[in-house]
Amino acid sequence: MLKFIAGRLIVVLSVGLTLSIVTFFLLNYVIDPAQAIAGEDALFEEIEQIREQYGFDRSITVRYFEWFTGIFQGDLGESYYWNKPVISLLVDRAPETITLALMSVSVTILISIPLGIMAALNPNSLIDRMALGIAVTAQAVPNFWLGLIMILIFALAFPIFPVSGDKTLFHFVLPSIVLGASSVPAVMRLMRTGLLDVINADYIRTARSSGFYGWRLIFNHALRNALLPVVSVLAVQLGNKFGGSVITESVFAINGLGRLALESILGADIPTVQILVFVFAIIFLFFNLLADILNAYLDPRLRL
Amino acid sequence: MIFKTFLKRLFPRSFDEQIYNLTPKELIIRKSSNHGGFKFGLFLLTVIFLFAIFGPVILDVSPYEQDLTKRLLPPVWKEGGTWEYIFGTDGNGRDYFARILYGTRISLTIGFGAACVGMIIGVTLGVCAGYFGGWVDQIVSYLLTCQLALPGLLLAMTIVFLIGPSITVVIFVIGATHWAFFLVVSRSATQKIKNLDYVTAASAIGASKFQIIMKDIIPNTVSQIIVIFTLEVGIAILNEASLSFLGVGIQPPTPSWGLLIAEGKEAIFFQPWLIILPGIALFTLVVSINMLGDGLRDVSDPNNKVSEE
Amino acid sequence: MSKFLTIQNLDISFESNNKNLKTVKNFNLNLNEKESLGIVGESGSGKTLSMLALTRLLPKQAAVSASSIIFQNKNLNELNNKNFYKEISGKKISMIFQEPMTALNPVHTIGKQLLDTYLYHNNESVDKGTKRALEILDAVRLPKYKQRMGQYPHQLSGGQRQRVMIALALINNPSLLIADEPTTALDVTVQKEIIQLISELRETIGMALIFISHDLGVVSQISDNIIVMENGEIVEKGKTSKVLEKPAHPYTQGLLNCLFKLEDEQKKDKIENTPIIRVKEISKSYKLPAKIFKKPEIIYAVKKVSFDVKIGETLAIVGESGSGKSTIAKIINGLINKDEGHIEIKGQKIDNINVSDRAKLIQPVFQDPYSTLNPVHTIGYIISRPLMINENKSEIEVRNEVVKTLNLVGLSKDYYNRFPNQLSGGQRQRVAIARAIILKPQILICDEPTSALDVTIQSQILDLLSDLKAKLKITIILISHDISVVKYFSDRIIVMYNGEIIESGNSKDIISVPKNNYTKKLMSSVFSLKK
User: Fold this and answer.
1) Are residues A155 and A239 in the same domain?
2) The domain at C34-48+91-263 falls in which architecture?
3) Residues 35-74 of A with CB under 8 A from B
4) Choosing among C55, C82, C85, C212, which should be mutated to test the A contact, i.e. which has the most A CBs within 10 A?
5) How far apart are the C-alpha atoms of C92 and A104, rounded to whole Å?
6) What residues have CB less than 8 Å from C430, skipping those under 6 apart?
7) Average pLDDT over residues B290-309
8) Mutate to test the interface with A, among B157, B162, B173, B242 (most CBs of A within 10 A)
9) How distant is the Cα of B36 from the closest Cα of chain A, in angstroms?
10) Across the interface, which of B19, B206, B220 has its CB nearest the CB of C375?
11) Are B8 and A200 in contact (CB under 8 A)?
């Protein structure tokens, strides 16, 4: 088990390293950062001055090493746009996004798991068709539009939840529903097909031939097998929610990492953007690793 | 469906041995003509395609022509709406119907374009990884992990914004961040197929690796890849809309649906149709594509033996 | 007179595509206490369905009707599902299935599964349940049974899992055990042990047994009475010895004929003494995926194997799965590379023969008729492809050649434009043979060419092969685990075990007087008809 984790950890670290190089070079080499800061209409002299001022005239490898070693000393660079250290921006904004991610995954779980189970237990029934309809709809609705429609409905017709801002947990209800809805189709389909497969498996026939039936059959013999893949997908989805927070946060005016990312991009704030891309990637890798470990722990066939 | 898997397990041979009078192609056509979702999706998508191609020509309306005396006219079914502007006008007095109509072209172009880019990258990598295995597979898996870990939308936003937005850039950036699905599916399909006896038989009769990949492996993965392709078209369309909505995709005055919604956002409580209408257009297009994709998956699934009547 | 179990007029039908599919018609059964009954039939004959109907394991869509099912003086038709599952399933009537690899729940330990089943039907303490579980694991002779309680199914071999399955079925001392092809998925030597175990346990527990199988040989060993089914109907029933001696129904006669034919020996042609293939000390090993900080483990699939194949002979390589017999076939065919040793074909080293020449010398025929043909190509294309790749012929020449070859394997030219999905298993295997012989190779390597087919079709394909062998003067290497096929077909036999040759010689000698212990076990595991 330890070896397994160590092996996965090595992969995660090397992917993280690769990605840090890729993002850094993409944002500093392919694109001229001085030009990006100065804007499109800037004069040549202005650009040159910015280049010198920020040290862009030095070799890119040197700058990469500076940046990368800085990360380990807690120095994530300085934002041009906010005129603040990037780390303090992260610390300020992270709680909102973490709340949003956790709440939206809870929404996903609450909707998709019961629905998936009910659909699998009654294939081709009304509830199955309804679940399929929900999946098809949720898959085709643009996230930002769903957010706007929610704002429209809840601001005008049912003013129960606040539609903008991040002061209380209530403010997070609508954004979580919007963000959570985007993972419902995938998780629900997985739950449904997973449970259907299990119900058709030989070992369920064995259990039935031993006299087990009804809910006892499902809970004692089928559910754990069917939940195995769902658990790991949920962990991955949780990792995805951080990167996916950009749209929801900007629609609902939540001051989280996603909105920070959008504002930094629009402000051509490369130090912040590259750190955010890197951080989101690391978060994703972390939850992926967590999913692998969970799976290995829950599934005896993978235990080493 | 489960009932069929049950029967198949009971009569494994007789079910496989079910001898069809029809060729595989005829079977697929017959199956799809019995699939409601598939037919509905195909019908809807065809209508949208025809609208996108011929609508602007026949109706002779311009999405760019401004008339500041006719700003924010309501659509025809609202009080004050006229048949001249079926969907009303936007804040600059442009015909909203014409803008949505032209937006269809942009969504379709970017959706299919980006899915093609993603397919070329993903299938090439996937088939190579699946067929050659070993270190090729390891490198491709590594690339895959990198691709999955990168926050796609964020990266796309950054690159589009910094390179400068245009339809081509958007197509390539979305395509380049959406090939993982193609890769995973084509790789696992290839791995399965390359161990089948007909591939071994092909190498025993002296077929080269290239011939095997082109004649034996790829033709048998096509149905699965088409399914992913349709689903990715839907995803790419939604992605473009998101980018444009956030202001880092298609730039004004080009009428992208995401952009229309962003522009309408300012007046959300006063002229809600400005965001509702393009949203419905977007939803309808993506639903039709997804229904087509889901239908194709059912139809091409060999376990799903749909009736032959 | 009250019987132990009587079923009268059992009908099963499925509603499929708006057609009413009757799969079992008018099934009747009388079973005495402690009787052993065999139900025989080919796949799809309804033998499993009728028993699943009895144990109520059919899906909802199946319409089951029976005028009466009386079990131990209880009318089962009057019992609702809930009471049936609580009182009968797993308690009075138990069932074991074909697939030991998937029949146990992979996420629960053996102990938990046994205990669950025991406590569900018996209001006892966990201690007592554990005691009973250990007792029954001992009774099914699971090696090291005490440690197995905490283990998961994937840690056990196929045979061991089947023992656990039997333990699970017997833990509540049922009075009827239904065994549905319990040995089909197992290696032959293990098969014999499981059959013996079931028949011994039947004696000690004193239960009745219904044994379902497609294999007349196996059934004749274990059952007092036999029911033969075809297309959902019982075509013959009676005492085992009587049915085997004087089969009344043509279907039974056919089944028996195929078996007897396999028991006979074929007339053998004269064989020249010059070898066409010389295999010298070839080895092939695989590295297990390396774990970190650990040396990769090496497994030999084939270890220093040498033999000759003479022109015109049929050499059989026998052994269980994993013995390395298929690896040898692939090495000779040039489909995988060997690590050491060398192979000469007609005096030429195999490494020096180019792909095209090799294709014209030697061709394979595979086991599974469903994966041997590429589903996207037509039969005509599949058969003509070897010509198009290796020979420079005009389209018309190729077409004529293909039609000729189709005729040779017993198919008409109408098949030219068909696709594999339009053919039956036997026909597909004929197409695969056509593809193999169109280049007129001198050697055919047949890897279990008939083991995926029904018995009646098996003998047709074997006849076709021996016919072609005579017509085209081909040397055949036959890979098989089925001793009866080997006996029928081969001149010489090589017995393999764990990648090594442990015995070789004339087929007559090896079958009648095997020397090696393993060979003895292998030969004795063949179920000949017991009369």
Assistant:
1) yes
2) 3-Layer(aba) Sandwich (3.40)
3) 36
4) C85
5) 50
6) C409, C410, C411, C461, C464
7) 68
8) B162
9) 13
10) B220
11) no
- Inter-residue contact A115 to A125 (CB < 8 Å): no
Which residues in chain C land under pLDDT 70? 1-2, 16-19, 258-271, 288-296, 525-531
Q: Does pLDDT of B308 surpass 50?
A: no
Tokens of C115: 């205990």
The superfamily in CATH containing domain B34-63+84-300 is MetI-like (1.10.3720.10)
A26 lies in which domain range? 2-87
The predicted-structure confidence for A138-193, as pLDDT tens digits, reads as follows 999 998 999 999 998 888 888 888 878 888 888 899 999 999 999 999 999 999 99
H or E stretch covering B251: none
Is A289 a domain residue?
yes
DSSP state of A257: H
- CB within 8 Å: B268 and A151: yes
Q: Which amino acid, C251?
A: Y
**Nearest chain C Cα distance for residue A193, angstroms:** 17
Q: Are strands C93-96 and C176-180 parallel, antiparallel or unpaired?
A: parallel
User: Which structure tokens are listed for A220?
Assistant: 């004692």
- Select the CATH number that applies to the domain covering C275-524 from these four: 1.25.40.10, 3.40.50.300, 1.20.1730.10, 3.10.250.10: 3.40.50.300
A70 and A190 inside one domain: no
B252 CB-side CA count, 13 A = 12
- What percent helix, strand, coil does chain C show, rounded to 5? 40, 25, 35
C89 touches chain A (CB under 8 A): yes
SS3 state at C363: strand
d(CA C188, CA C195): 11
Taking an 8 Å cut-off on Cβ atoms, the answer to whether A31 and B162 are in contact is yes
Instruction: Verify that A51 and A188 share a domain, yes or no.
Output: no
Hey, where are the domains in chain B? 34-63+84-300
Q: How does pLDDT run across A94-147, given as a tens digit for each residue?
A: 999 999 999 999 999 999 999 999 999 988 889 999 998 999 899 999 989 999
φ and ψ at A31, to 5 degrees? -110, 140
Tokens 């032209």 belong to B102
* Boundary-marking domain end, from A87, A109, A128: A87
Structural domain includes residue A304: no
* Residue C280 CA: distances (Å) to CA of C76, C277, C305, C389, C478: 66, 10, 7, 31, 19
ipTM of this complex prediction, to 2 decimal places: 0.87
What is the model's pLDDT at position C1?
A: 47
DSSP A194-206: HHHHHHTSHHHHH
More confident residue, B297 or B303: B297
Residue A156 and residue A150: Cα distance in Å, rounded?
10
Secondary structure, 3-state, A60-127:
HHHHHHHHHHHHHCCCCCECCCCCCEHHHHHHHHHHHHHHHHHHHHHHHHHHHHHHHHHHHHCCCCHH
For A249-274, what is the mean pLDDT? Answer: 89
**Shared-domain flag, residues A212 and A129:** yes
Over residues B96-122, the pLDDT tens digits come to: 888 888 899 999 999 999 999 999 999
Q: The sheet that has C340-345: what strands, in order across it?
A: C298-310, C275-287, C340-345, C348-349
Cβ of residue C156 closer than 8 Å to a chain A Cβ: no
Residue range A187-231, pLDDT digits in tens: 999 999 999 889 888 899 999 998 898 888 888 889 888 998 898
A281-A284-A285 Cα angle (round to 5): 85
Residue with token string 């409601």: B36
Same domain, A177 and A71: no
Element (H, E) at A8: helix A2-25
Report the SS3 class of residue C320.
coil
Report the residue of chain C nearest A224, measured CA to CA: C107
